[in-house]
Amino acid sequence: MSQRNTGVTVQAVNAHACPIREVLDRVAGKWSVQILVAAAHGPIRFTELERGIEGISRRMLTLTLRNLERDGLVTRTVHPTVPPKVEYALTPVAHELNDTLRRLTDWAERNRVYIAEARAAYDAEHEPESLDA
User: Fold this and answer.
1) What is the DSSP letter of 44?
2) How high is the mean pLDDT of the chain?
3) pLDDT digits (tens, 9 = 90+) for 89-107
4) How far apart are the C-alpha atoms of 103 and 80, rounded to whole Å?
5) Among 83, 79, 48, 82, CA closest to 65
6) Is the pTM above the cut of 0.85?
């Protein structure tokens, strides 16, 4: 072990990194990204999110929205109508985050074909040998 870093312990690193890791885990989660991107254009209703995000269950949408609200990234507004109308909107902090998410999703869109081709090439090169041989 290096003598220069003897004051750095695993506990010290984790104490600093853990809150950052928690924030990144929350905002970079599969469903969180899609919800934040979908809500970036203005208030959006639960059912619009449910229909617009392919593969998300009603329960997962509810849990993710609740966590995003808890983290101060989404506001929930209940309008006193019958039936009640509930809308979700991004907070100013989430709008700032959305700029970064938009760049990330744009990058993913631009490079998805490249990545698919790279995966196919890798899989072809590293194909497991047949058990019949």
Assistant:
1) E
2) 86
3) 999 999 999 888 888 889 9
4) 37
5) 48
6) no
Give the tokens for residue 74.
């989404």
pLDDT grade for 9, boundaries at 50, 70 and 90: low
Q: How far apart are CA 28 and CA 30, in angstroms?
A: 6
Tell me the C-alpha distance between 110 and 106, whole Å: 6
Pairwise CA distance, residues 105 & 109, whole Å: 6
Over the range 111-124, which residues count as b (16 or more CB within 10 Å of their CB) and which as e? eeeeeeeeeeeeee
Report the distance separating Cα 76 and Cα 66, nearest Å.
9
Q: Which H, E and C letters describe 52-110, residue by residue?
A: HCCCCCHHHHHHHHHHHHHCCCEEEEEECCCCCEEEEEECHHHHHHHHHHHHHHHHHHH
Cα distances from 14 to residues 20, 22, 54, in angstroms, run: 10, 11, 35
